[in-house]
Amino acid sequence: MWTTTHVHTLRSPLLPGTRDPEATITLVRRALATLAGATALVLLAAGPAPAATTPAPNSMASMGDSITRGFNACGWYSDCTSRSFSTGDYSSVNSHYLRIRAVNPTIQGRTHNDARTGAKSADMYGQAGSAVSQGVEYVTMLIGANDACTGSESTMTPVSTYRANIDSALNRIKAGLPTARVAVISVPDIYRLWYVGKDSSSARSTWSLFGICQSMLANPTSTSQTDVDRRARVRQRVVDYNTQLAQACLAYGVNCDFDDNAVFNYPFALSQVSTWDYFHPNTSGQAVLANISYASGFGW
């Protein structure tokens, strides 16, 4: 930093043609003032400082399917909304709701789980309507597993249809809740479910017995090129869904946050999957889902 002592050591050789030491000092001071002003302009041109984090919401709703309903997280083939990663109140899961409540107690009891077991992207418009009618300030949406996990590859939801369904739902939220924040969460990697479960006889028999996600999980031990290619195509469909989620959220604007595929990329283990169906997250899986998706969100 410049000091008075440094200024007084400057002499006329630095400013040719200046004979008076006092004039030299005056000119130097002017030069420094000009430099300071220019520096300030550069800093302003670089853009404003990051804005403070927006206030935590006073209410929230969740949209989605059986994952958001906490299906099989605490019972035999039933919803367990208390353990939902989004709106649940089970302490071990530490849901979005509980994390928000820790910094904003006003949200206490002001949650709505609008998800429905078995839902697909086509159901999001209706769920968005529920969230709008509830007047919430924060919405989570995790949808797409059932669009890809069908009885066969041919019955998966086309990517264009999926995108249209997502846009329809988001547009309804934006129109009805223009200031609400929306967390769009990537579809989990169902290929990894096959990968971590294919060597488990319990998982394989359960998938077969209940016809679970046969588009991906049929013939789980097969190494034939036909099955290898099918699994790759189904996984690509999920990748494509997530690409559409990212684009739709970007188009929505600053009040929408996509998790940048954090959930899709998470390398979950079979121990985090319910042993009732070897498909849905168990309590541990819901806790991980809560942690990853919240950390990728609005930063409350």
UniProtKB/TrEMBL annotation:
Keyword entries, A-Z: Hydrolase
Protein's UniProt name: GDSL-like Lipase/Acylhydrolase
GO MF assignments: phospholipase activity
Signal sequence, start to end: none
InterPro entries: GDSL, PLB1, SGNH_hydro_sf
Organism: Micromonospora mirobrigensis
Alphabetical list of Pfam families matching this protein: Lipase_GDSL
